[in-house]
Amino acid sequence: MPTSINGILKALGDALGGKILQTGTLRPEKVLVQVDVGAHRDAIKVILKQDENAGVSAITGVDLGKTIKLLYHIRACNTIITIGVELPKENAKIESITDLISGANFHEREVSDFFGVTFEGHPNPKRLILPEDWPENVFPLRKDFTAPNFPSKTENSGALKDNEQVSGDDGLVKIVLGPQHPALIEPEKFILKVDGEIVKEVKPRIGYVHRGIEKAAESRTYLQDIYLVERICGICNACHAACFCQTVEAIMGVDAPPRARYLRTIILELNRIHSHMLLLGHAGFEIGYETLFHYMWRDRERILDIMEELTGNRIIASFITIGGVRRDLKEEMIPRIKAEMEALRERMKFYKELFENDSTIKMRTKNVGVLSKQDALKLCVVGPVARGSGVNMDVRRDEPYAAYNEIPFRVITYDYGDSWARLMVRLDEVVESANIIQYALEHLPSGPYRVRVPRIVPAGEAIGRVEAPRGELFYYVKSNGTAYPERVKVRTPTFANILAFVKIAEGINIADVPASFISLDPCFSCTDR
Amino acid sequence: MSLDSGFLFRVLIFPGFAFILFFTMFCDWVERKIEARVQNRMGPTYTGPAGILQPLADFVKLLTKEDIVPFNVKNFIFKLVPILSFSIFVFAFAFLPIDGANAILNSNFEGDLILVLTLISIANFFLFLSGWSSTNPYSATGAARVLTQFLGYDIPLFILALAPAFLARSLSILRIAASQPLPFALVIPWVFVLFMITLQAELEKDPFDIPHAETEIVGGYETEYTGRRLAFLKLAKDVQIVLGAAIAVELFLGGPYGPVFYGSPAFWCALWFVLKLLVVVVFTEYLTCVFARLRIDQVLVINWKVLLPLSLLSLVATVGLGLWLNPLR
Prior knowledge:
heterodimer; A: alpha+beta; Beta Polymerase, domain 2; Cytochrome-c3 Hydrogenase, chain B; three-stranded antiparallel sheet; 15 strands; B: mainly alpha; 13 helices; 68% helix; globular
């Protein structure tokens, strides 16, 4: 690391001087720098100068009544620095930062959709999540939002316009991939402009499964919200629960007891294993290797059996709660889980050999969809996608939560940046996760597995980060001192990774689109929320 | 040749239409079972003992389904193609000796090898037409891929099929099969290996099942087909697989000929033929299971840069071997 967080703060103070309105902390121990409107660009430039690998983790909008507060959560020096800006609600305008960090593109469009903030100088200020026929000047996440009278679906609905033009002015053929397509399990649309067999440009369109979970969370109690956020993503549900609970615990100033922290680690790693194996099997299916798919999913089933025994459910765990976990691990399960982990490591050895030696797998994934390290940093990608491009980042190591500060593990990186590297990262991480679970079981502390917490959460705001199977998961929770949160912001890993697909799809063969797309492990129900 | 009951029996029952139909379904079941077992699954289980009637049940089910012809299709071709491609494949079967003779007795002639291979090409062309007439982008892409692939792989297939014909000094499938005291697979193994690879591509099986890449082009050329047309299209594909395997058996594994112990030689011939064919089917299905699907450009590179020169080379080697074993007089 070129510099430290204190260095950045000092540089910020020197450069901005009077433009800094206030510095404070976002719990747990995160820097919050409140600046003048317009000074946020200077602040981000200063941070980029200090740590050139800095990226945007999320941009949160909060409706404060008369004003809208924007929080730029910048990932620098392995932690998060938040730059806060307050805008007047009427005619909210701010300069875009997409020219500084291109990964901010989608984050700004999302805020603009939900809060009606205009980002001046944004390269593509279109709707991102809301449908094209959503009425103007109705912003769902503002507090004064009332549901509009939705126009009836008409033939000339804006959403259809993109489909109609089959070939553009540039003579390229448009191929529409989705919203329903066999290669995509979830609904999303990509408009591919192809020249012969080569993809020239990709335009993503998401938001088909937007369920308004962030809004719904505001009208439910914290306890109810745990079950709500688990439903953001079925596959990595434990990560969402962990991240939300962690963030709320930070506001409350409650610490989960040691045994609960270890149990959380175990469930999070089980979650990672089954998510990665799902993806690896699915990648096999995408490249027409159905045998791999069946093998992988059968081995995954054993992990699900452990999940069921531990939590009572195969997939949606509902295991983690505010102040600990909901169930204890029975002593007699420990040897069985250990044996399963041993068996899993053996299987992964076999799969690794397969991925390294099978020529057809290599022909379909090696040097396909290459994302360079520079692009990965610029587009602020997270998780295995970043690590496959040689970016050494992992929230588990950078800012340990649960019991990760006490458990040794390796962060897997590959430098190739192609589909193969991204799959190999996941393959190796499964082994690491098995090791982590084994270590956690051997060093499981005794004691209570949860502490009781009050239902009313004191006023305050906090951010939380968890390394979900698909990458860094980001939560921001603001409490107003009642049993209901004021604002819950979720930035899921796939949201940060979609821009990478736009990048890697340029110039690849159209037959490689599904295979390279799946190597990002996209999850659109998370992305849309 | 008169229309007596023996003739009708041979054409319609055994070794003609009914035998081919049910044997194809049996092979389909074997394939599905093998694939399932390799992939750690059960495969068909419920219909009949060990699910052996599942292909028949699937076929009957499709026959009963609603028949939808999309609005914009080229109507005549769209409706004609499934039945035509099926009949051509079955017709080609009539020239293969199954119980030691062709379905129509004494119908073999010098050059029926060329005829059978040509019929396969024509039937493949009808599969292409099925996608092309659908006017659906997925079907069109699938159809284009069928055409690209079979145009490429027909050439090495023809060249490789000539090698056993040269050794047998005949272009009649019956004579080639009959002139193998030692199966040609053992005499010219290099040709046999190449032939099996080419066959895999010709039958559109992994790693060459590009026209069926469901993650890229949905159902390929079958996308718009439903009901009985789909049933016949699928049946045509299955017959094609059995036919491909049967040609491999005739040319390289000694055809229906094998040790005859007692009783009717026709019975033993049919038995040997079925057993040999099952070996080939199991082998191709195994290959299907252990490979990922290639890309169309990679397939073409393999075809034109690897398989074509290799098949020419192997033909030259075979001619050399044939002349050395049995010099021209």
